[in-house]
Q: What sequence folds into this?
C-alpha cells in the first residue's frame, strides 16, 4: 500500500504548479493605474536623473498614441491598463548593504525556489562545482545581486538597472534603447515608460566572464505588472553566458509581464542567453489567471564575427508573445535560436525569432520545437531576411511541432525574404503527433504511459536541451516532464 | 475590400496593399493610384490563336472580361477545354467563370492569360468537383510586363474527387495567382504545383490556401521558380487542418533560385493545425545555382550560358514532369525553355 500512496502523492505533487505560493510581505505600491504622474512616481522612487525621467515621459507620450497589436495568434480579453499596479516593491528602510539586511521573508522565497543568494551556499557541496552570480528581481525591484565583487575584479559590471543608471550613466545612455527603440512596439514602449528594474551587464574587451550570470524574476504582488529591462553589452572579444528564470504565484487575475531585453555584441564578442520561463500558466481547466508574457528581446550583432545565441524553454505563462531576434549587422556575425515551447491546458504561445542578415557572410540557425497538449495553441512565427548587401548569408531553420491530444493546435508561420542572389536559406517544418509505435515500444519495455511520453518528448527536444548550460538543462528537462503531466490518457 | 470591388467602384482605396497581411508582398494600393476606366470591347475574332488551341476544339475566350462564363460536365463525361483570358489595352475589367464537374466527370482545363498593354484584370473562378470527379487545371500565365493581373480561383472538392493544378507564369508588372481549396478529406486528392520564371522587373505572387475539413485527405504541393534581374517572386502557401480532420497527409515544398544580385524571393509557407493525427510538412529553400554542378558541366566542355540553362531547366523540370496531360506538358516545357534561354 505504501507504494501506491507514494505514487499518488508523487502524481499530485507533479500536477501542481510548484512555484504558485504567495509571500505576505509589506510592500510599497504606486497608486493603481497609469498616467504621467505614475511614470514620475516610479522615476522619483528610483531617484533617477532628469534625462531618465525625460526618456520615460517621452516613451509614455508615444505609447498613448499607439494601438495594441492584434496580429499574433492569441486570444485574450483586452487588457485594462488602468487596473494594475505599475510599481510594487518590498518595503525596506534604506537600500540593503548586505544580504543580512534583506527581508528574511524574501530570502525565504528564494530559498523555496531553490535560488542561491548566499555566495557561500553556491559554493557548498563539491569543490569545483559551477558557480553562477544571481540578480534577484522581486516584483519591481532588484533585491540583491551576488558575486559583484569577484566580477568587478575582472572588470565585469553586473548590477541592477537602477544601480547602473546611478553608477554608470554614460554606458546606459549610450546603449539603452539602441537595440529596441522606444517606440519599437506597443509593449516595448510601455516598458520604456514604466520599467522598474532588471539587470545590467557590461563585459570589457577581451574578458571571458568567469561565471554564469543570471537573473531570477519573481512576481509576488497582486494586480501588479512586471516591467523589467535588461541590457547586456559584450565589448570586443568578450564572452558572457546569461541565464534568466521566472515564476509567479497562482492567482485568478491575469498579470502582465512586458520586458525588454537588449543585447549588444562588438567585434568577436559572444553572448549566450538562456531562458527558462515558468510563469504561472493559469488554471488548466478554466484558463483563469496566469501571466501575459509579452516580451521584446533583441540582439544587435554590431561587430564583425560577433555571435549571439538565444536558447529558451517556454513552459509557463497563459499567453506568450515573444520573438528573441538577432540583427546581424557585422560581417561574418552569427545568430542562433534554440527554442522549446510547451503549451498545455489553455495556454497560448506565439513565439519564434527574427534573423535579419545585413552584413556579408552572416550565418543563422533556428531550431524550434513546439509541443501542444490539452486545449492549448502553439505558434512558431519567424522571419529570416537578407538585405541586398548580405552576400553569402546562410540560414538553416527547422521547426518541428508535436501534438498531444485532440483539442490542441500547432501552427507554423515562417517568413522568408531573400533579397540577393548569393544567400542560401533552408527551412523545414514538420507537424506530427506522438508516434503510437514508439509509445507502444516504450510501454512494452515496462514504462508507464506517462514515462513513455516523457521519454519520447525529451528525445524530441534533445537538440535544444543540449544547448542549455548544464545546471539549467537538468531543471529544464524536469520542467518539460512536469508541463506535460496529465496530457495523455 | 477587394480587387473586384475596386474595379467595380473605380475606387483605388478598395485595393489591397502592403498593410493587409495577405498582400504584404503584393502591394496594389501603392502601385495603382487611380483605377483605370473600363476596358474597351474586344472582338475575339481579331485575336491570334492561343497556346493550347491545337489540342482541343473546345475553346472559350474571355476578351477584356467579356465572354462565356460557364463550363459544365455531365456525370461521367470527359472533356478537354481551353479557356483563354485575353486582355488588351490599358483599361480595367473583371470576369466571373464557373466550372461544375458532375460525379465521375473528367475535365482537363487548359487556361491561359494572354495580355498586351497596361491593363488591370481580375478573374474569379469557381470550380466545383462532385464525388469522384477529376480535374486537371493547367494555367499558362503570359501577361504583359505592364499588365496587372489578379486571378482568384475557389475550388470545392467532394469526397473521392481529384484536383491537380499546375501554374506556370512569367509574371507581370504585378500578378497574383491565388487558389483557395476546400478539401473535404474522404480520400479526395489534391495536387497544387507552380512554376515561376521571372526576369526584368516582373513580379508574380503564387498564393494558396488549402483547408482540410475532414478525415483522410491528401495534399501535395510543389512550387519552384527562377528569378533574375530585378524580378520579385512571392510564394504564400497555407495549409489548414481543421479539428477532427485526422489522417490528413499534407506536404508542401517551395524552392527558388535567385540568379542576380537584385532579384528578390519572399516566401511564407504556413501550417495551421488543429488535429493531432496528421502528418504535415513543408520545406523551403532559396539560393543560387549550385556552383559545383555548374563547374562539372563546364568541365565537360559546356559553355557557361548553356550550363546555367540546363541546370535551371532541370530544376523546374521536376514540376513540369508532374503534369499528367502529355500534349499540354510539352507545350509548357517549350514555353518555359524559351524563357530560360536568355
A:
Amino acid at each position: 500500500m505504501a507504494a501506491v500512496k507514494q505514487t499518488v502523492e508523487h502524481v499530485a505533487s507533479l500536477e501542481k504548479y510548484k512555484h504558485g505560493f504567495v509571500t505576505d510581505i509589506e510592500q510599497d505600491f504606486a497608486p493603481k493605474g497609469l498616467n504621467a504622474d505614475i511614470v514620475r512616481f516610479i522615476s522619483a522612487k528610483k531617484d533617477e536623473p532628469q534625462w531618465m525621467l525625460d526618456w520615460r515621459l517621452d516613451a509614455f507620450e508615444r505609447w498613448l498614441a499607439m494601438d495594441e497589436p492584434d496580429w499574433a495568434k492569441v486570444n485574450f480579453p483586452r487588457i485594462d491598463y488602468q487596473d494594475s499596479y505599475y510599481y510594487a516593491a518590498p518595503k525596506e528602510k534604506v537600500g540593503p548593504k548586505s544580504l543580512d539586511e534583506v527581508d528574511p521573508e524574501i530570502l525565504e522565497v528564494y530559498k523555496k525556489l531553490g535560488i542561491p543568494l548566499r555566495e557561500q551556499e553556491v559554493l557548498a557541496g563539491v569543490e569545483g562545482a559551477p558557480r553562477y552570480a544571481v540578480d534577484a528581481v522581486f516584483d519591481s525591484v532588484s533585491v540583491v545581486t551576488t558575486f559583484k565583487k569577484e566580477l568587478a575584479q575582472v572588470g565585469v559590471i553586473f548590477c541592477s538597472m537602477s544601480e547602473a543608471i546611478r553608477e554608470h550613466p554614460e554606458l546606459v545612455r549610450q546603449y539603452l534603447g539602441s537595440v529596441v527603440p522606444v517606440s519599437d512596439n506597443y509593449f516595448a514602449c510601455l516598458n520604456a515608460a514604466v520599467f522598474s528594474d532588471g539587470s545590467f551587464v557590461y563585459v570589457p574587451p577581451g574578458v571571458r566572464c568567469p561565471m554564469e550570470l543570471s537573473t531570477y524574476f519573481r512576481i509576488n504582488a497582486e494586480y501588479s505588472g512586471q516591467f523589467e529591462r535588461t541590457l547586456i553589452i559584450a565589448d570586443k572579444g568578450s564572452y558572457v553566458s546569461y541565464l534568466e528564470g521566472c515564476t509567479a504565484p497562482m492567482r485568478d487575475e491575469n498579470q502582465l509581464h512586458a520586458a525588454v531585453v537588449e543585447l549588444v555584441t562588438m567585434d568577436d564578442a559572444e553572448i549566450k542567453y538562456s531562458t527558462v520561463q515558468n510563469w504561472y500558466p493559469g488554471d488548466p481547466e478554466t484558463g483563469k489567471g496566469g501571466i501575459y508574457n509579452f516580451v521584446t528581446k533583441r540582439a544587435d550583432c554590431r561587430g564583425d564575427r560577433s555571435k549571439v545565441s538565444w536558447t529558451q524553454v517556454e513552459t509557463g505563462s497563459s499567453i506568450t508573445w515573444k520573438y528573441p531576434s538577432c540583427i546581424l549587422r557585422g560581417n561574418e556575425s552569427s545568430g542562433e535560436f534554440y527554442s522549446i515551447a510547451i503549451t498545455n491546458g489553455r495556454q497560448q504561445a506565439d513565439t519564434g525569432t527574427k534573423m535579419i542578415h545585413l552584413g556579408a557572410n552572416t550565418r543563422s540557425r533556428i531550431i524550434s520545437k513546439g509541443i501542444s497538449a490539452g486545449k492549448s495553441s502553439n505558434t512558431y512565427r519567424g522571419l529570416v531576411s537578407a538585405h541586398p548587401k548580405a552576400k553569402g548569408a546562410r540560414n538553416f531553420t527547422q521547426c518541428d511541432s508535436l501534438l498531444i491530444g485532440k483539442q490542441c493546435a500547432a501552427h507554423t508561420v515562417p517568413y522568408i525574404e531573400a533579397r540577393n542572389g548569393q544567400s542560401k536559406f533552408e527551412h523545414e517544418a514538420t507537424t506530427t503527433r506522438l508516434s503510437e509505435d514508439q509509445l507502444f515500444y516504450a510501454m512494452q519495455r515496462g514504462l508507464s504511459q506517462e514515462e513513455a511520453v516523457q521519454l519520447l518528448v525529451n528525445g524530441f527536444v534533445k537538440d535544444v536541451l543540449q544547448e542549455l548550460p548544464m545546471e539549467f538543462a537538468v531543471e529544464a528537462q524536469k520542467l518539460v516532464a512536469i508541463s506535460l503531466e496529465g496530457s495523455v490518457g | 475590400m477587394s480587387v473586384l470591388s475596386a474595379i467595380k467602384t473605380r475606387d483605388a482605396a478598395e485595393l489591397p496593399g502592403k498593410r493587409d497581411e495577405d498582400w504584404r508582398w503584393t502591394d496594389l494600393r501603392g502601385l495603382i493610384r487611380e483605377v483605370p476606366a473600363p476596358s474597351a470591347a474586344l472582338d475575339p475574332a481579331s485575336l491570334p490563336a492561343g497556346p493550347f488551341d491545337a489540342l482541343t476544339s473546345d475553346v472559350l475566350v474571355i476578351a477584356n472580361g467579356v465572354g462565356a462564363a460557364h463550363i459544365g460536365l455531365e456525370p461521367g463525361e470527359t472533356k478537354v477545354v481551353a479557356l483563354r483570358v485575353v486582355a488588351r489595352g490599358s483599361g480595367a475589367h473583371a470576369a466571373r467563370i464557373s466550372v461544375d464537374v458532375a460525379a465521375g466527370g473528367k475535365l482537363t482545363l487548359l487556361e491561359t492569360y494572354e495580355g498586351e498593354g497596361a491593363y488591370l484584370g481580375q478573374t474569379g473562378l469557381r470550380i466545383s468537383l462532385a464525388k469522384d470527379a477529376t480535374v486537371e487545371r493547367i494555367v499558362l500565365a503570359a501577361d504583359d510586363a505592364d499588365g496587372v493581373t489578379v486571378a482568384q480561383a475557389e475550388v470545392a472538392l467532394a469526397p473521392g474527387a481529384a484536383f491537380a493544378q499546375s501554374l506556370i507564369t512569367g509574371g507581370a508588372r504585378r500578378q497574383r495567382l491565388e487558389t483557395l481549396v476546400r478539401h473535404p478529406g474522404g480520400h479526395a486528392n489534391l495536387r497544387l504545383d507552380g512554376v515561376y520564371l521571372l526576369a526584368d522587373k516582373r513580379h508574380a505572387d503564387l498564393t494558396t490556401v488549402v483547408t482540410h475539413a475532414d478525415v483522410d485527405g491528401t495534399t501535395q504541393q510543389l512550387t519552384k521558380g527562377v528569378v533574375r534581374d530585378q524580378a520579385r517572386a512571392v510564394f504564400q502557401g497555407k495549409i489548414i487542418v481543421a479539428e477532427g480532420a485526422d489522417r490528413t497527409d499534407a506536404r508542401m515544398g517551395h524552392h527558388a533560385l535567385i540568379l542576380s544580385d537584385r532579384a528578390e524571393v519572399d516566401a511564407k509557407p504556413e501550417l495551421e493545425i488543429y488535429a493531432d493525427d496528421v502528418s504535415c510538412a513543408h520545406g523551403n529553400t532559396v539560393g543560387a545555382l549550385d556552383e559545383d554542378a555548374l563547374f562539372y558541366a563546364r568541365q565537360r566542355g559546356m559553355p557557361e550560358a548553356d550550363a546555367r540553362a540546363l541546370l535551371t531547366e532541370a530544376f523546374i523540370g521536376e514540376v513540369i514532369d508532374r503534369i499528367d496531360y502529355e500534349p499540354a506538358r510539352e507545350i509548357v516545357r517549350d514555353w518555359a525553355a524559351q524563357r530560360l534561354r536568355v
Notes: Chain B has one domain: 36-340. The longest helix of chain B spans residues 304-320.
